[in-house]
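Budget justification note: compute hours in this period were largely spent on complex prediction jobs such as the one shown. Inputs:
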Amino acid sequence: AQSVTQPDIHITVSEGASLELRCNYSYGATPYLFWYVQSPGQGLQLLLKYFSGDTLVQGIKGFEAEFKRSQSSFNLRKPSVHWSDAAEYFCAVGGLKGGSQGNLIFGKGTKLSVKP
Amino acid sequence: DAGVIQSPRHEVTEMGQEVTLRCKPISGHDYLFWYRQTMMRGLELLIYFNNNVPIDDSGMPEDRFSAKMPNASFSTLKIQPSEPRDSAVYFCASSLGTRGLAGELFFGEGSRLTVL
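Corresponding output:
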């Protein structure tokens, strides 16, 4: 079955520290991979996406993610976290299956708290 | 540019009442999606439209839910009659072309529904 797993429900890091949020997926077709961020009371905003090509992708706000096919992973990283990064982060997998829409599947999310 | 606009932002109603949620997609986008977010089930796709035509409504939970898109700039999600278990945040998202099929979506800020 297709699924996205974010093993960490809640992570707390100190401001200025590095960050890695984990994401593993199971998807029958060629995956398109996404990270979205949701600030409290807001909608989801696309951080970055992977469709093909270079497996290390850069996104907005200084985030990057690396696609590792052998590990079925798409972990999100940031070298130095800012207090404004506190939010909930969602990994998602989607894609075209036979030319028709593949339902975008979201993980349960990881809530990031940032300590001063 | 204006993003996806949803109304109302908050709705509190009593069980059995009709609820109508509204969405204005980004101008020029040809895909529109309705999602529901709950703590228990996370983000679920309810229905999506392409060029105002419903393409996949398999996520609509039951006949009490209906969605329409009478033109390219407006969509509604209606629940009649509403039940307490419908309490959730409902998101509308839009996208352009096949990027929308792949999952590159622009979300509104959501409509938080509470059914008493």
